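new request in #modeling-help
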Amino acid sequence: MPYSDLEQRIGAWLDGRISETDSETLQQELRESAEARATFESYAQLDAVIREVADTQCVGAISQASGSSVSLNKPAKTYYIRASLAIAAGIIVVLTATLYYRSVNSGRNIARITGLNGTLTWIGDGGQILQGVGSPQASTRWSNVLSEGAQLPGGTIEGTAPDSWFELEFHDGSTAMISGDSILTFSDRGQKELRLKQGRFSATVMPQPAGKPMLIHTPSAVLKVIGTQFDVEADPKSTLLYVREGKVEACRVHDDRKVDVSANHRVAVATDSDMVPRFVGPDRTWAQTPAWQNIATTGDQYSIATQEARDYDGTRNLLLSESPAILPAQDTGYTIRGGDVYEIRYEWLDDTWWTAQDQVAIRLFTTDNDLISGTPTTFATVFSGTLATAGTYEAASGSAKATATEARKRLFVAIDTQDGGGELDGVARLENFQLQVTHFPEPGQPRLDDFQLQGTPFPDPPPPPTAEIIIGGKVRNGDFNGNL
Amino acid sequence: MDDQPAEKRTASDDERYEAFVRLLVEHEPRVRSFLRGLLPTWHDVEEVTQEASLIAWRKFDDFEDGTSFGGWLLTIARFEALKHRRRVARSPLVFADDVWDLLAEKARGEEVQAIRRQHLELCLAKLKPSQRDLLLNVHAPGVVMREVALQSGKSEQAFYKVIQRLRAVVLTCVTKAIAAENA
């Protein structure tokens, strides 16, 4: 089928690749010719309809996934959730406006809200903007739309702050949750269909009706789920899928390539990814990570210490929590010398329920008996600063100095959190922790660096500073990858 | 555009909402098609469609019974597209004002017979599966056509020609289908 130069130029315009010269020519043709405008209009319409059809393709054979009914993998802190809900009520923005998602579900509720927090925008069941962030929720006929227990028809929920999260339960018991800056559209017309435009999404899917798997569309992939437990993270160019249980079929929109992702595997779906599922090692407890201890008084040594999910560099990371039940710490085995400078570096990532005000706090401390179980005295705290970009690993560093008060005592380090949002339920991840000490000998101070000369004063001038990595990489499991 | 006089406010808010949703669902594809000829990218189209839908809901009280909801929605969409266009940086993709007005008038015209999804599906079924997949894949969300072209093994220009040829084939088929429908 031949096509004209005009059609070629229209195609180039629709594809976004038209040159300035061709654009001028095309515009002149459109000015002068009603026929050219009709042709342009036809191609524009065709483009729109092709995109509409293309958006719903990529749904080939159904994988055989085993059904499961496991609970959502999140910290079991129901009372924190309840407490946070009370706070959340004050900062929810309710935009109950157009049902944008071709919903013919209007009037038919398909899911129930089981939890929510932070600034959220709901687009779906009629209404209007009620109030802005931080103001109390006005009492209107729509004000119960976003509240725990409320029933919803299909629609779109958008988390608009790093600490936003929203959990709903479908009538068959399947649950879905978004967190952070995420946009999720959901519907159930006999088949659950969800669209994650961006952000993080977790779900526990009950066994679905035969031939009607749950479909999750992202900009780069279509995921088909019979019944399983998984996490998805999507941006406009890529989708990261991590399957905890069961099996999920991932289909790349770009070329229709499909891959089955089994339990404990993850796959990255992007135009240039190999789409090979990679094994994700099982979680390790504190008991399996003896270099690090959970020194929280109510701490459980068999709770999760490290994971491979949401990794920074393909390795394991430390799971941090604001919960008082978790406080990772280590006996460094190092004896403090007056004038020591401690330099701390690590990468960290905000995760579920971490607010924009929360921080990682590295605490250096001594104890009254030089045992980690002793009564602690913190002599320095180094904060990460609040997160710069939600959902992205960022580097943190800082330094602290020991004084004569701490000299000759054992050094301990704790990786703590500093709450800033008023809710002790935030989760973060930490990678590649490094603690380096540099000792600056001072004339007249007793030296501890030489066994032969121990206790004798440093000469004037003293020897040059010496640096030593106390924790970092494989040393004392600073990368959290070892089982030390 | 077949646009029946629209029902408007009813006794209850739920019915009013349902009436709006029904109208929106019916007319939204037409709005996207209309905007596609006015805005440089599909992303722009989606953004403006969403904005126009929200404004339509907020102004639904102003909508007059018995008038064309589709026409009213297109008017809102055109206004929003104009606002959006002003925010888009100048580029070969942004037409001059006079051309933009001509295209908007043309696309807005009631005589325009919209291409519908069923027309396209009918014609896609007549393509070879590989051709159909290729055409759909390059129009799928998030796909950058240039990247697909580079991976195809063909030169970019040759690849674009293949796509344009497929479009021409499908458009001819769709035009015939619409003509047959109206015969």
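bot summary: The two ends of chain B are 16 Å apart (CA to CA).
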